[in-house]
């Protein structure tokens, strides 16, 4: 088993006033040659957007873009004609494919919205752009794994990604343990502690710490405190 650890306070940080963002991987003005990506996982941004503010309309292509709200409400609009709002318990994906423009805005005029912006390199390039979002039952991840993203063409739970990737959430009670089994032994998993603390593959992690795990079929998660944890299984051949 190989592991690579990223402490919360080692992430890149940019505070633009309206946007306070932490970057696990090289992004914008933050560059770390050891942290350009983890396999197909290219961007993991932890964004706080002030009330009424947001990202204006801008283009993307050939990238799988996932948004996971942690607090508040995020308004989405895109050139495919989608206009919607996502909240905690929902997950959104946009396959940029041949090209799409979108904007993301805090729906609330006063309170911040907090969400994860995640980019994954696609399996197939230049596909037709697509959009999907889904509400997930928070009780469905209590002390067990809940798949929220899975590959196109599979019958697995979750919204569909143009990549052989699975995103999983768990809300794990203190002292509870789970064993994660990789869907593909050639993949790796980036584990991100949203809240609480846990022992992952024998290593202690706290809030917003991350751990990349590869060259294994399974690993153990044991919550030290009540914890919310995101697991992103991705191909490593990137």
Structure characterization notes:
Helices cover 0% and strands 55% of the residues. The protein has strands at 2-6, 12-15, 19-23, 41-49, 54-60, 64-71, 73-78, 83-87, 90-95, 100-106, 113-120, 130-135, 146-151, 159-161, 166-172, 177-181, 187-195, 198-200, 203-205, 210-214, 218-223, 227-235. The strands form 4 sheets. A 7-stranded mixed beta sheet has the order 1-20-17-22-15-13-14, with no helix packed on it. A 7-stranded antiparallel beta sheet has the order 2-3-4-11-6-9-12, with no helix packed on it. The relative contact order is 0.19. The radius of gyration is 17 Å and the shape is globular. It is built from no helices and 22 strands.
């Amino acid at each position: 088993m190989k592991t690579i650890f990223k402490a919360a306070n080692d992430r890149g940080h940019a505070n633009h006033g309206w946007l306070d963002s932490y970057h696990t991987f090289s992004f914008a003005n933050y560059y770390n040659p050891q942290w350009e990506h983890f396999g197909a996982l290219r961007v993991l941004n932890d964004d706080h957007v002030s009330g009424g503010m947001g990202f204006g309309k801008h283009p993307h292509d050939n990238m799988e873009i996932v948004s996971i709200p942690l607090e508040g409400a995020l308004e989405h609009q895109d050139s495919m004609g989608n206009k919607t709002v996502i909240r905690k318990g929902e997950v959104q994906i946009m396959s940029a494919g041949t090209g799409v423009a979108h904007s993301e805005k805090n729906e609330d005029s006063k309170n911040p919205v907090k969400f994860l912006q995640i980019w994954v390199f696609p399996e197939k390039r230049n596909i037709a752009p697509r959009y999907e979002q889904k509400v997930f039952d928070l009780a469905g991840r209590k002390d067990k794994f809940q798949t929220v993203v899975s590959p196109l063409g599979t019958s697995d739970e979750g919204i569909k990604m143009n990549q052989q990737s699975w995103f999983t959430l768990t809300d794990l009670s203190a002292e509870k343990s789970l064993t994660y089994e990789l869907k593909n032994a050639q993949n790796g998993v980036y584990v991100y502690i949203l809240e609480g603390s846990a022992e992952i593959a024998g290593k202690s992690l706290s809030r917003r710490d991350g751990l990349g795990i590869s060259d294994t079929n399974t690993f153990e998660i044991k919550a030290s405190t009540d914890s919310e944890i995101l697991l992103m299984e991705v191909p490593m051949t990137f």
